[in-house]
Specification:
By secondary structure, the chain is α/β, with parallel strands linked by helices. It folds into two domains: 1-84, Orthogonal Bundle (Methyltransferase, Methionine Synthase (B12-binding Domains), Chain A, domain 1), CATH 1.10.1240.10; 86-227, Cobalamin-binding domain (Rossmann fold, 3-Layer(aba) Sandwich). Helix content is 59%, strand content 11%. It has helices spanning 16-28, 33-53, 59-82, 103-115, 128-138, 150-153, 155-162, 164-170, 183-188, 198-225, and strands at 89-95, 117-121, 142-146, 173-177, 193-194. Strands 2-1-3-4-5 form a five-stranded parallel sheet, with helices on both faces. Helix 4 crosses helix 10. The chain is globular, with a radius of gyration of 19 Å.
Length: 227
């Protein structure tokens, strides 16, 4: 892993400027932006996410880490845009109605954008109707729903029902996550995927896109050779 982060200090506030300096130094040394992103920023974020899962760091550390990643991404962005990474797919994401928590959602966005996804963030306290409008307008491949509270988790089901037509017609997939969300709950509301943290969210979204692309290619082949 490139030395973009100092795990011993858990991304302390004073290290934020250092992240930008290191990214700039690596770029001047000729290291590709994609390598800095994957081997430095994303692996560093994955490290702190694992620490969070183990209870060794807490939400303030996650928030500081996400700020550090965003700072590095601002420097890398021009190079990444010109690179051949391309966009891996479109995602609409938001925190459901009644819930104003966004730290986890924002970390997921950092991971997704860093990996090449085009992400439309609807913010927090988003009603089902607004999710539906965004899906109809943006035509994403994936819809991401976040909720931190047991009282707001059930609003995910309402959103999923509202986009039922888009799921059927456009192969839209829904992924859910949040502090109290779990696999059984995701199944009960008929979500397509569940992620326990930002690292798994990226992995699940990549898997979904592979399946969608495979299904699309299969349908093209069927149309070519049918009849």
């Amino acid at each position: 892993m490139l030395a973009l982060f100092d795990p011993e200090k858990h991304y302390s506030e004073r290290n934020l400027d250092r992240i930008g300096e290191l990214v700039a130094t690596y770029m001047e040394a000729g290291i590709p932006a994609e390598t800095i992103l994957r081997e430095g920023l994303l692996k560093g974020m994955g490290f702190i996410a694992e620490k969070f899962k183990l209870g060794e760091v807490f939400l303030p550390d996650i928030w500081i880490a996400s700020r550090a990643v965003k700072r590095g991404m601002k420097i890398l962005a021009p190079k990444l845009i010109r690179s051949s990474l391309g966009k891996k797919g479109k995602i609409v994401i938001g925190t459901v109605e009644g819930d104003i928590h966004d730290i986890g959602k924002n970390l997921v966005i950092v991971m997704l954008e860093g990996a090449g996804f085009e992400v439309k963030d609807l913010g927090v306290n988003v009603p089902a109707g607004r999710f539906l409008s965004a899906v109809q307008e943006s035509k994403p491949h994936i819809l991401g729903l976040s909720a931190m509270l047991s009282t707001t988790m059930r609003n995910m089901k309402e959103v999923i029902k509202s986009v039922e037509k888009e799921r059927y017609l456009n192969n839209l997939k829904v992924i859910v996550g949040g502090a109290l969300v779990h696999q059984e709950f995701a199944r009960s509301i008929e979500a397509d995927a569940y992620a326990c943290d930002c690292v798994e969210a990226l992995e699940k979204c990549l898997d979904i896109r592979k399946q969608q692309i495979g299904a699309h290619l299969e349908s093209i082949l069927e149309s070519l050779f049918s009849g």
